[in-house]
C-alpha cells in the first residue's frame, strides 16, 4: 500500500512539473535555402535548446521556408497561422518579403519577432501593429554607422568616393540622400548605376579612372563581389579602399586573393570579444561542428533567448502577456546589450538594436576581421589597401 | 582616344563569351528548330562542374573545360532523346513551354542541391592584367575570348569542311530534303542539340572564373544570347559572331559614354531585339 502511495505521489509530482512548465509552439518563417536564412535557423534552434534546457519553459518550433519570395512567404505564414495555429512567429529576414507579410500578419495578429528587414518601408508598414518586435537595426542606423566610418576615412585622407549602385530597389533607394551626406562630409562623389548580376563593370570602371576615386563603394549583391574585385584590378583603377555593401558575401570569397583588403559592414563576427559572443561561438561549434561568421546566427539565437525570458516571466502562453514581458527584457547578447525602445522615427514601439552593433570589417589573410570602430577592432584598418 | 580604344577592347573581349553562348542557342534553334529556354541552365551546370571540381580536387576551372563539354554533350543528348524528340512535331508553343519547364526544373534542382548562394572559385590570374601602350587587357576575359575564338573556329570548320557538318547545315536549311538524300536527320538533331549544350557548358566554365556559380548564373547570358540570335537572324549561325560583337560594343559604349549608362545596358539588348524584329517585319511586308 505504501508503495502504491509513493508511486501515486511521484506521478502527481511529475504531472505538476509538467503543468508548471509552459509549452509554446513558435512558427519560424525563414529563407532556409540561403546562407543567411540557414544561419538564422541554426541560431534560433541553438537558443531554443538553451531555453528548453533551463526546464522552466518549453519552446517547440514549427519551421517553414519563406522561399525568400513574397509568393511563397504569404501562403507559408497562412499555413502557420491556420494549420499549425501558432501565436508567435520568428521571421522576416528580407525586407521585400517582410513588407509583403505585413498585411497577413495584421490579419492573423501573431506576436511577430522580426529578425531582419532593415528597410524603412517595413517600419512604415508595421507602424500601426503593436505585436511587432524588430531586433535588427533599421536602414537609417546602417547609414549612420557607414557614415561614421566614412568620416574616419576622410580624416585619414580620402577625398573622392565613387559609388556603384545596383539600379534595383535595394541599391538605388536613398542613393541621393547618401550622396548628399557624403558631400556634406567633404567628399567629392560620383555615382553610377549598374545591373546586378551582369558581371560587366569594365566600361564603368574604365570611365571612373578619370575620376581617380580614393574609395570605390559598391552597393549590390553577392553576385557582384568577385567581378568588381577582379575588374577593378583589370582596368587598373587602384582605389585606396574597396568598400562593399551587399546583404551577403559569396561563399568562398574569403579564400580568393582578390578579396584581400576589401572592406564591408557586419553586425557580428566570431572574433568579437565579449562573453556572450564567446559563449555563443562555443555553443554553436558544439552543436553544429563549425563556426559561422553570419551575423544572422547570433541574431536568431538572441531572439530565442529573449523569447525564453519573456515566456518565463509571463508564465503563460498568452501572446499579449508574453509581449508585455518581452518589452521589459534587458540582456547582454553577442551584439552588446539588448532592450526594446520605440524606433528613432517613433513609428514602431519595440526596436531592439541600433547603429551601435555595426562594425566595419576587412578581408585580411583569408577571413573577415573587425577594423572599425577602434574600440571593437581586432586589427588596424589597412588603408590604403593593396588592390 | 585612349578611353575609346579601351572601351572597344572591353566590348570585343566581352563578345567572345556572348558568341559562345549564342552559338549554342543558334544551333538548337537553327538545326533542331527548338527555342531552348533551358540553355542558360546548361550554362549553369557547366559553372557548377567547374566549381565542384575546383573545390573537390583543386583543378583549375579552365582545365575542366573538356570534361564539362563532354558531360553537357551527354546532358544535351539525353534531353533531346527524352524530352525534345517526342515534341518535335508538336506546336511551337508546346515546345517552348516544355523547355521553359525544363529551365525552371533545373534551376530548382540546383537550388535544392546547392542552395541559392553565390559560389566563387579562386585562381591566381582572376585579377591579372596585360598592359599594352596604356591599354589594359584582363587575363580571364582575354583567355575566355581566345578560347571562344578557337572553339567557334573549330565549330565553323566542322560545319564547313566535314560531311557531318555539311549534313548539319543541310538539315538547318531544309528539314525534309536531307532525309530524302539519306541523311539521318534524327542523328543530326541529336548531334546539334548535344553540341549546343556542350557550348553552353564551356561558357559556364568560363563564367565560373569570371563571375560565379549559382543556380541563376546562366539567366542573364541566355537573354543576351536571344538578342544576338534575333539580330543575326534565327538559325543563321554565321551571323552570330558579328551580332555578338555589335551588341557587346554597343553595351560597352553605352556604359562608358552615356551618363548612368550602366543601368541602360540591358535596355540596349532589348532595343536591338525590338528594332531587328520590326525591321524584318517591314522588309517582309
Describe this structure in words.
The complex is a heterodimer of chains A (387) and B (285). In chain A, helix 2 (35-54) runs parallel beside helix 12 (296-314), helix 3 (70-82) runs parallel beside helix 4 (95-108) and helix 12 (296-314) packs across helix 13 (319-326). Residues 14-19 of chain A have low confidence and may be disordered. With 387 residues, chain A is of the alpha/beta class. Chain A has two domains: 2-137 and 272-353, Rossmann fold (3-Layer(aba) Sandwich); 140-266 and 359-376, Response regulator (Rossmann fold, 3-Layer(aba) Sandwich). In chain A, the strands form three sheets. Chain A has a seven-stranded mixed β-sheet, with helices on both faces. In chain A, strands 2-1-3-4-5-13 form a six-stranded parallel β-sheet, sandwiched between helices. Chain A has a two-stranded antiparallel sheet with strand order 11-12. Chain A has helices spanning 2-20, 35-54, 70-82, 95-108, 120-125, 139-155, 169-172, 175-184, 202-208, 225-234, 275-288, 296-314, 319-326; strands at 22-30, 57-65, 88-91, 111-114, 132-134, 160-166, 188-194, 215-219, 241-244, 263-266, 330-333, 336-339, 350-351, 359-364, 367-372. The radius of gyration of chain A is 23 Å and the shape is globular. By secondary structure, chain B is mainly alpha-helical. Chain B has one domain. Helices cover 73% and strands 3% of the residues of chain B. Chain B has a two-stranded antiparallel sheet with strand order 1-2. In chain B, strand 1 (129-132) and strand 2 form a beta hairpin. In chain B, helix 1 (2-32) runs antiparallel to helix 10 (240-257) and helix 3 crosses helix 8 (185-210). Chain B is globular. In chain B, 50% of the residues are buried.
